[in-house]
Amino acid sequence: MCRAYDTQPTNTCYPLSIAEAACGCAAGQRGSSTSPVEVAVRAPDDVVATLLQMSKTDYYSEEKTFSAPVKGRNPPISQTKLNARGLKDLDDHDIDGLLSNLSIDELEDLNNDFDPDNSMLPPSQRCKDQTTKTPTGPFKRDHLLKYLEDQAKSEKDWEDVVPFSPGIKRGKVWEGDSGRNSAEGDTRDSGVAGMEMPIELDLDDEEEEYEAALDHAPERDLVDLAGILGMHNILNQPQYYNALKGRGQDDSTGTTFAGIIRAYEPKEMPDEPDNETDVDECIKRLEEDDEDMREVNINNMKRVSKERIRKLISAACASKHINKLSMANTAISDSEARGLIELLETSPSLKVLNIESNFITPELLAKLLRATLVTQCLTEFRAENQRQAVLGNQIEMDMMLSVEENQSLLRVGVAFQSMEARHRVSEALEKNYERLRLRQLYFNGQVC
Q1: Domain final residue, candidates 261, 289, 316
Q2: Mean pLDDT of 81-96
Q3: Do 412 and 300 fall into the same domain?
Q4: 297: left (phi > 0), else alpha (psi -120 to 50), else beta?
Q5: Residue ranges of region Disordered (predicted)?
Q6: Which residues pair with 354 in a beta bridge?
Q7: Which domain holds residue 229?
Q8: Do 285 and 240 reside in the same domain of the chain?
Q9: pTM for the complete prediction?
Q10: What CA–CA distance (Å, rounded) separates 310 from 337?
Q11: Per-residue model confidence (pLDDT) at position 6
Q12: 288 phi and psi, to 5 degrees?
């Protein structure tokens, strides 16, 4: 197939098919929507013959193209045959004249070649509207169904090759298993030559051996055999699992089917000791900025007054060496926890903050996460199990954005209800872990 070439301002040549050239692309407008039906100018007869031959080729056949003409070489033979003057002298008027000599059917075929079916569209939308008949009237579904039903009833049925006759059976009569078995039994009894004798197994001897072995087997082995066979309804759980694992039965699990199992005695675990942290001592050491005072844990200390908790938080703001502050299950509310905003914004050493199981509102939790963006030193933030379990979509989106902007957080203990918030927070934490890993490799000298 011959090709025309369209030169862009960047001096790059793009091949154009003859369809695009016929639609006005030779004038410099690639992808023009001009239809060849709208163009009408005369052209030489040999060009018309060539285009007609090209329009009859299969669209899905392999496309044949020529490379761009090179200086110092003779033009291709097809180019010389197409027009004696060459493609360089072929202007729009010649193409318009060529299309003007085509008939309506030829132009329609040419249009079908230029605009093939789009495989991305469903089949019902690929075809063009080809109906030329005028509608007989408005569409009425009930009338159409009635017309189709009447037409089906009025038409005569096809004539059968063999007319139907009542009482006559055609073909073979089906025989069930009973008839086949009876016929096989008759042939087997009659001893017809060529029939194979049925295979018979005598299991009486083996059954007697099994019965004798089971009669003399101890009940311990029978318990194991019942467990292996899956008869768990006559065994207890220790016997059943011991049989499956091949451990055997012992006195603790019972060696008989009616054995009594010793009850499980739970181990006595001592209660956790009360938190004996001296809050006043912690406040004093934090105010003095003690270097050894790096962790403060007042978990489960609900009897501490609210005023002392406020003093503890304000003293932690003055310390530059505190790394971890745990205040879980201390019954603090927004009035006491509001001082944590200043702590997160000013403390360059705080790494872990635990305020779980308290009465903090979702709005203050969002402000606390937003405060971590100032220093970006906090690596772990735990604030689950608050009085208000549902945070709300707006609060969750605000907290999600804060986590995404923070490059130091590695763990966030907040129960998000929104799937988007959970997914994006987990992705942000994964990025922070990867950033930390690369930083460690860089300091170790493994990454340049």
Answers
A1: 261
A2: 59
A3: yes
A4: beta
A5: 116-140, 172-192
A6: 326, 382
A7: 217-261
A8: no
A9: 0.45
A10: 8
A11: 43
A12: -80, -5
